[in-house]
Amino acid sequence: MNKWLSLAGGLVGGYALLKTPLDGTFLNGLNPLVDGIGLIAMLVFSGALIYTGVRDWFQR
Transmembrane segments in this chain: where (predicted)? Predict the structure, then answer.
């Protein structure tokens, strides 16, 4: 169960990085980098979540 929560937390964290408003702050120049990290995090953690779910499904 802890593995599922960690993967879901990583997925939510990636989504939060994508939706973080950086306009009007001193971090405005890092906006493309933060969006890229958020997108990669969402892809990695969603892929791991799908892989874990399918693997657990076939082991039963």
Answer: 32-54
